[in-house]
Each structure stands twice: as C-alpha cells, then as structure tokens.
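INTERNAL AUDIT FORM
Audit reference: QA-55
Scope: verify that the stored structure record matches its stored sequence.
Auditor: D.O.
Record contents follow.
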Amino acid sequence: MTLPLLSAALVGVGGMAGAVSRHTVDQRVVGKWSTVTVNVLGSVALGFIATAPVGDATATLAGTGFCGAFTTFSSFAVGVAELADAGDYDTAARYAFGTLLAALVGVAIGAAAGGIVG
C-alpha cells in the first residue's frame, strides 16, 4: 500500500508527464485523430498496467497519473457533441462508436501483453 502523500506525489508526477505527452500528440496529430490516438494508446497502456505485475506505486504513477492526464474523455465527448450539433449525426455516431471500439480493443491488447509479462 502506498502512503497518501507519496501517492499524491506519484499521481502529480505521472500527471505532468501525461499532460506533456498529450500536448505533444496534439502538436503532431491533426484534429479529432489526436483525441482518438491518445485515448487508444492510453487504453493500451492502462490495460497493460492493470494486468502486469507492476506494483502499487507504479500503477499509481503510470495508471492514475500518466494515463489519467494523457487520455481525454472530455475532448472526446465535446467532439461527438460538436458533430451532432452541426447535424452530422452519422459521423458523430461513427466517431463515438469507433473510438469506443478502438479503445476497448486497445485495453484487450494491453491486458494481453500485461498477462504475458505477468
């Protein structure tokens, strides 16, 4: 079990790295693909962290901190809402379901990799 102050510090450090990484992806990947990219990569990472024998401190740093700051449900939700508000319901639905499916596949891939390591 990780001590509360250490746990908060681990989340902060991981969150800082995740936020910087998220910004880096935003600079290199155009439009809504940036959100899809971070959410799928974050899902792979979290699936791995959840199944690999990484320990509490690493799970807190990488899972809660890094993945929490790197992935972005709010940007995903805004993207779907913007498409729907513009009347582009087909694209909104494809974006929503496609992102969700890709993220779930990502979790499965990460979990499989974590299970192999464990």
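Auditor finding: record pair retrieved intact. The chain has one domain: 4-117.
Action required: none
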